[in-house]
Amino acid sequence: MAQLQLQRLRKSFGATPILHGIDLDIPDGEFVVVLGPSGCGKSTLLRLIAGLDHPDAGDIAIGGRSVVGLDPAHRGVAMVFQNYALYPHMTVRENLAFGLENLKTPAQEIERRVALAAQMLQLDTLLHRLPKELSGGQRQRVAIGRATTREPGLFLFDEPLSNLDAELRATMRSELTQLHRSLGNTMLYVTHDQVEAMTMADRIVLLRAGKLEQQGAPLTLYNRPANRFVAGFLGLPRMNFIDGCMQSDGVFSADGLPPLALTELTQPAGTRLALGVRPSDWELADQGWPAEVLHVEEHGTESVLRARLLGGQEVLVQRPGQRAAQRGDGLHLRPRVWHAFDDDGRRLGP
Questions:
Q1: Cβ distance 43 to 121 under 8 Å?
Q2: Helical segments of the chain, H only
Q3: Were 11 and a residue from 19, 90, 111, 172 both cysteine, which residue would form a disulfide, CB within 3.0 to 4.6 Å?
Q4: Quick one: angle between helices 136-149 and 92-102, nearest 10?
Q5: Does pTM surpass 0.85?
């Protein structure tokens, strides 16, 4: 295992800044998911740690040792790529053993590590097949197995499940989580998929435009988002935002809607803010905000309604069960749980 420490890490490509001084400390054995939209710097961060790119400034320490300028082969890391990166002319066994052979590892030790990886990843019966004879999930297992045979202190995963179908992704999420429990190694996993982040991570690190927006346990980010970006990025369907202002202490007002008491807020009258409500956090109430159902999606165990509030703003509403409403129905909505953000997107409460 290995501790990973990043200090003020910066990277630009030409005149375009990619990472703006990232600080991160990952202790031994933690499974950390770096999450964020496309282009936020996730893969660049991983490549800097692996040694495939070089930082413009800052430090990278693995196991307490700075590795800036150190050859990738000597960093004690193994990387699993999105596209598997298997050698097509080599069998599964040869792919698993190739890196160790390059390192002049003794033959007996290679056999031990290959056998252990094959057993752990259920590749025992596939060792003599070529990559073209494998399914996508089996190819990804081989790519992971090739990383485990090196017995690194730090695993790096660059969106390894994005090429798989939904059912296989769910299976592989479970298998990777089990692999982490079995090995106990430090793992840094990059993805834009919030489901992967929420279900796999010990800790989520959320990036936007090369800056760290928030980090913490998955449910901490979900329940206590630091800002409007975090709140809107985590959660499916996404959080609704209703723009308005404080009418008086503890009373929120939005265009065309009756005033809503929010006693936890103490901002003075006239303060502009956005009220965030997750689709699952609306409740039906006689004295709630009037809304008309525009569209209904049936998901089997729940219905997702698109509704227009009095005043024109549209919101999503999750209701349990089937046929919870139909197009044209009138509703009165009240937030059971809410979040408030100022004009700069910072969290105000509750």
A1: no
A2: 42-50, 92-102, 107-120, 136-149, 166-183, 194-200, 218-223, 228-233
A3: 19
A4: 20
A5: yes
